[in-house]
Amino acid sequence: MPSKMDKELLIQHYLSNQLTDEQRRLFNQLLASDADFKEQFEFEKNLQGAIRNKQNIDLKSKLIGFEKEITEDIPAKQIRPSYRKWAMAASIAVMATLGWLGYTNLSGPNFDALYDTNFQEYPNTAYTITRGDNQESIERDAFVAYESGNYEIAVEKMQQIPLSQKEEYVDFYLAQSHMHLGNHARAKDLFGKIIKGNAKFAAESYWYAALVSLKEGDKQTAIEQLRILLDSYDYQKEKATTLLKELQ
Predict the structure, then answer these.
(1) Which of 67, 200, 236, 242 is the most buried (most CB within 10 A)?
(2) How far apart are CA 113 and CA 184, in angstroms?
(3) How do residues 132-174 score in pLDDT, each as one tens digit?
(4) pLDDT tens sequence across 180-197
(5) Cα separation, 100 vs 31, whole angstroms
(6) Start-to-end Cα distance in the chain
(7) pTM, whole model, 2 decimals?
(8) Of the candidates 19, 1, 170, 34, the residue with the CA atom closest to the CA atom of residue 10
(9) 164 contacts 176 by C-beta, under 8 angstroms
């Protein structure tokens, strides 16, 4: 079990986009299983967001002040057209440069933050588990593990289901389990398989595949997947629309 200091370091590395694959896997596991860790993470993420907003407001105020000084120091009638154009161009250049720096260094895009904001586990709607029954099967054990958050066991059991008995929804929940474990490449392959076969959960697979692309920092693919989702399906329409606007 990681120490308090180790957990704090994980959060700081996450907020600065410096997590290794192994650290990201541990981070996701703690986020799903450790309520105190999740509470601390949410607090520090919100605090960082507040600081960034304050810095952006200060930056805008400075730029407005800079433009005002130019117009006040030199009366408008004394400013030659060429100088006015130069001053305007200089202001735009400064604002564009500082705006770009502010965007990349202060406010994002933080793909991990977008992922965490939008990712929610898909509930088990495919396999009915009757509590207290005596029925035993690999599939039942897999979905009991999934509902309990034991994703490693869920993956193990789902992969043991014989092909002849494997329902088409199993791959979707297998992909979900891999996402929780940080195995995003494996999840992406499974979502792609579902989409290609136009199987059940194809719409949902586009949404989660877009989130996986965000986690991998592949903005363009995420945009393409969101556009297909919005053009062809109604699933997560509001969230997909908002996320697409944030990425464009």
Answers:
(1) 236
(2) 16
(3) 666 678 999 999 999 999 999 999 999 999 999 999 999 999 9
(4) 999 999 999 999 999 999
(5) 31
(6) 40
(7) 0.59
(8) 19
(9) no
